[in-house]
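User: I'll paste a sequence; please echo it back and then give the predicted structure.

Assistant: Echoing your sequence first, then the prediction.
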Amino acid sequence: MTPSSKVIPDYITLMAVVKKTVSIPEELYREAVREGKSFSKVVGEALREYLKSKRKERLKSLWGTLKDLGIKEGTEFVNELRSEQLKAQEDRERWQDT
């Protein structure tokens, strides 16, 4: 088998693997292992969920910014932006016609 004809497993081509040492309470480790998955999978799933919740928190924090701008809802903000873009496009077309 030549080096170019080696079969590379999907999990290697999809993402790089990082090995890190973590310190956690032993009871937490045992409970995670009892779930029947590898510890790495449990940690990966937990980290994904944690990061997902943090992204949601950041998005929720923007709500105050929208309210400070006098915008009631996110959809109202998007509609306002679209209206401004449409008006700008119409202005450009008027200038091109003259």
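DSSP finds four helices and no strands in the chain. Residues 4 and 21 are 34 Å apart (CA to CA).
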